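Model: Ready when you are.
Researcher: Fold this.
Model:
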Amino acid sequence: MLLVGVSYAQKVQQPYSAYLFTYFTGNGKGAEAIRFAISADGYHYRALNYNEPILNSAEISATGGVRDPHILRGADGKTFYMVATDMVAANGWDSNRGMVLMKSSDLLHWTSSKVNIPQAFTQFADVNRVWAPQTIYDDKTGKYMLYFSMRAGKEPDKIYYAYANKDFTALETLPEQLFFNPTGGACIDGDIIVKDGKYHLFFKTEGEGAGIKIAVSDKLTEGYVLQNKFVQQTTDPVEGAGVFKLNNGKGYILMYDVYTKGRYQFTQTQDLKNFKVVDNEISMNFHPRHGTVMPITAKEAQALMRKWMTPEDVIQTVQAQDLRPINVNLDSAAHKLYLPVNPGTNLKTFKPTFMALPGAKVTPQTPINFAAGPVKYQVSIAGEKPVSYQLVAVKNHNPVLAGYYADPEILYAAKTGKFYLYPTSDGFTGWSGTYFKTFSSPDLVNWKDEGVILDLPKDVSWGKRNAWAPCIVEKKINGVYKYFYYFTAAQKIGVAVADNPTGPFTDSGKPLIEQHPEGTNRGQQIDPDVFTDPQTGKSYLYWGNVYMAGAELNEDMTSIKPGTTTIITPDRTFREGTYVFYRKGKYYFTWSEDDTRSENYRVRYGVADSPLGKINVPENNLVIAKNKEAGIYGTGHNSILQLPGTDEWYIVYHRFNYPKGITMGEAAGYNREVCIDKLEFNADGSIKPVVPTHKGIEPVTLSKK
């Protein structure tokens, strides 16, 4: 971090007006590399170089990957020092022995050196991990001190320090212990910032009760006294604390990697003791892992922008009320930017704004009549020729929800006369979401966020993770409407009950399905679907991944009728996502084929004569698949809606995020969005293949009787 409160910082004080964020993005090839992002205010960040590495890890490291980058402005104010863990996670957490030292005079060009601790210092021959190095200038010695965590054998990790040589290419002193966790366990990810003449060492504890604590000292290399409380503002596991001072004088930011949730948390503090979450003020177009932020000057920021930012990236920072930012699409060849807006948006006074970026300007900056057609905007980056773009506002209805959601279940509630969507909360790395929401609509186009209806950590005792693929049924019991909500948690299926479609829902207290049904030993107990047979009034639960199982529910709707569980897997195309509905004497079964991370994820169907009978699979049974021409991929995990009292049908499904999903690799499989299109049948009852659209459907009106 930029060191404040010591003499060298006073000597080189400059009017810092922007911020440079250096980070890596995850485990695996290409992710374990140094990336840069820039910000004008410390809250809103934009990745440089299209979120691609600014250095080649294979060239600068011994292992082929680098993690945990830390950047520091030198004592002269114009030299920069960067250090990183030399490590590839695929080799194991106990596999690395060193770090990479880097140096630059302009933030654009870097020299690098590799340091292997056991090779450089035979006293540390049994060291098996060297993690998260950082650099600080020692004003007393006039040298740069590196501090990092090390572990020897099976001992707890401790934080050590050593001084770099003059050229910043090696360590010239034997590593010495700087700090250990006095309460026991490991001590990693140190970050030092100076305030009021005192050194504040932020670090992470490992093991039970892990989190971020602070130790304080009057001296850089000794005397740290533990302030024995956690300062992270979340109950989720965290690591990689990074602290920086805001340029506007309004305190400090403590940020950290909430690594099990694939997100960062930002907190603000005035005194380095009390921390307030400011996540709702933060925006980033990337997903960082363990990084650091350094204040920079306008001149430095402009140089970074000219090197690694383009006009087309600037124009895509567009923001506006009623805009769906994750669906903004740039046609680079035509220089056209398509702005998807919510239904009902007044295009005559539409006012796009753009992220404030150092050295960049977008004009005009006033409301424009977009109803008349494309509007011309101009992007200027300091020192570069301005570039013009045409901006077009588009009122498509797909996706129907703003944000990342998947596995949609749809319900028409007779009690309220409204429609409700119950999706998986998506956008979490590795499908790691932990809560469920619902949305209501009078017409299938305009949707209201009704909030969280079930939060696994708070509301479910037996499953705290992987909140996936819910379903719901409305039942009238003794003249009163009840809502039974079946959901996946920790690869088990539970049920919660409410008096209203928006909850609050109360979990039954135990899993309804937690083991493989007899006759199966593969797949997962996920993706429940509930169906009430209009012929008999009996309700059935279906579930399974790789296999399809079904069973009759007891009248209490919270237990399975013994002896009714049946394996009814239709054919080899079945993967998951069963949905059952009834039409004209036939029971239709739909399911998803392939993997949700695949662009070829799609829906097929079969027909049976009873809810648990043999499923007959038509030769041409594709319901919906990708529409490559429209850039729509990964269409699957559906539910089906029949408008009450009609033979009008709709398919509700998720797809990859448009337009970014197809470029995201496997991450497309957990950055999905919900869509609705019309479902139609041929005269013989077969389903007509659905072509997924961006336009979606028009608002529906239910007849009032």
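Researcher: Now this one.
Model:
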Amino acid sequence: MADDIIADLQPALRIDHVTKTFPGVVALDDVDLTVRAGEVHGIVGENGAGKSTLMAVASGALVPEAGSVSVGGQPLRAGSTHDAQELGVAIVLQEPALLPDLTVAENMYLGQPPTARPPIGQLRAWSRDRLCEWSDDVGIDPDTRIEELEPEQRFIVDIVRALARRPAVLVLDEPTEHLAGEDVERLFAAVRERVRDGGAVVYISHRIREVKQIADRISVLRDGCHRGTFDAATLSERDIVDLIVGRRLDAVFPDKPALVDDVAPVLSVTSARGRGFEDLTFTVRPGEIVGFAGIEGNGQRDALRALAGLGHRSGSVEVDGTPVRRKSSAVAYLTGDRHREGVFPGLTVRETIGLRNLDKFSTLGVVEPRREREFARTAVAELAVKTPTIETPIESLSGGNQQKALLAGVLRRDPRVLLIDEPTQGVDVGAKSEIYDLLRDSARDRGMGVVVVSSDGIELAGLCDRILIFSRGHVVEQLAGDEVTEARITGAALTATTHRDKADRRAGAAVRWFAGDTAPIAMVGLAVLALGLWTSLSSAFYLTTPSIAGLLALVAVLGFVALGQTVALTIGAVDLSVGPLMGFVVVVESFFLTAESMPLDRVLGWVLLFGVPLLVGFVNWALVDVVKMNAIVATLITFIALQALSLVLRPQPGGLFDSRITDALTFTLGPIPVAFLALLVVAGGLQFWLRRSRTGIALRSVGSQPDAARLNGLSAPRVRLVGFLLCSLLAGLAALFLLAQVGSGDPTSGIDYTLTSISAAVIGGASIFGGRGSFIGTVAAAFLVTQAIGAVTFLGLDAAWSSYLPGAMTLIAVAVYSRTRHLARTH
């Protein structure tokens, strides 16, 4: 009877005939799935089975080629994360969709549907209350930036903000990978509570024991297809593993030789630890191939890179009994990311093979072409690389032959240990067999030790003599001999029960302060005082009223355009057009705001003062978000166009501005120009807007990480449009005060402000990578830059120092901020 009632209820989530393809891959093939309200629905499958892709479609993050999704009976508009939020879908991804440059509280705010977000003034208290619902001693400050949190803390924040929505459908994609044991129990308790309240939970995991423990029903995906839905109580862990694997060996592997047990190991690793793994101890015998296996992200790949010297590690690593501190010629590494880290487009086969072996055919650093060609030909012949000539561009070869060419370069170094990541990724079956033979023959004939990381269980079972199973950074099982089968490898990885230990690797308070928003303002303030003291001791005129008034008037112009540049940097762009835009506005206004102008002309002039910058901002946005140009290239085009138009309209300076307008714009209260006071008011308002408004948070979100911002329901193009318009509008305001200083339409009056505006914004704390900016810091930095340029004259320095000083200050600021922010960031 109860089952009949459940069957009559409207499904919480319904996926009908969904197909999703990527280039060369069918990720989902006509998949149907129904998730009931009040149940935990487990989804299991191997890497690449389509689990995460299916939920990305269900959450609006991906648009399928066919099929539909409905939530609570309401259709979901394909590709709309905003609509998914409104319908009650919350998703916690394998990599949390959090904005690294925003605080915990701001990320929790964005994680709520727009209609359910708390008032920003109450955001900190609201966030603390939600975190305390997870645990009274959660230890996460709502004001901490996400990038400063430990990985497990980031997952907790993502889970807590999803739970705070009381979603109709909660999707958890590998939620426990970075959680300590007590947090796993808290998660399970929260899941059960959500189900009791009538919500539906989709639980995706490779950890079969967890799925069995928490799920009511389990669906199995394999090769992009739905292979069935089962009551969890009717399946054993072994049954689930068999359903997940469900395929036979499809590659030919070389025979595994008998290995001598009492021979000295070629590689010995004792108590090694590093990012992503710990307490790694194992040996490799001469001629032996050892595999690292486990669900993706459990430390096996981190361990391999650390052994290759590509990451920090501690512990003991010895090759033939000799300690290896960092990198060693006795250890060779071949990356699994062939396209980004292996093959260099533009190099020939000869150059690719020779790149790792330059010392073998060069004398005093000079390559001998004949020896290099002979070396490459020998390598190509030994490894049967199919290439027309050794001068053929490496990228024109097939994937398998590219991999063999890379392997040739590595093996020709005759290493004692070969570390290889995904040896056959992206190559055809025939090339796979050849690579397997090469690895086995090289290990046997050279007495070399080989360590392989692969996500393919069949490959590991067929190639390796021994397998180490990684789970949450630990080796949890070792398989050898007849135990090395795909089923055992998959089963061991899926049924691992290890938990991560809590860690505290957070940077010290001083580093966090330097990485924050206060440090730039304080450092700039100290620099202003120091430079001011030095200059005043060198010139009695420096602190007089006329000198101060002139300095502040110049600060006002630079300050306004630097505020605009700060907006651009915050959204992840650089606007090179601001300087010529200022000059162009000055030129345009020189035709309308003169003493001889008619009243209607003056009205049009004031309209153009705002209309021209807004038009330029729109053009910049269209080039970036519609034409898809890089922001620097797009604004450089606008830079050139505006400067050319200025010179066409005013080949020489001309058109005197009405003195009544210039007098009003240069009016001072004592030594302080009204323009500078206006700058302070605008900067203060923008600072409040950036930190305490939805639009300000959206700007920083898009600049911090556009993809994550989209997953949080934000439209990056719309947000960038606001940013480009505001940037140009502030440059237009800067032009208004500039025209009062230059007095006439000078076509070159704004050019220098492009670089100085970037300097002021960066010195003031804006990140060149986006997501961060301080308008107060920018005004302080504009003061410092203007002061430094003016101080050159008072100090009697060469005019070139007016460029040296701002440039040096910018470099120092970038170096200090980047380094401290890197140190404060946890990984």
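Researcher: Key takeaway?
Model: Residues 207 and 494 are 5 Å apart (CA to CA).
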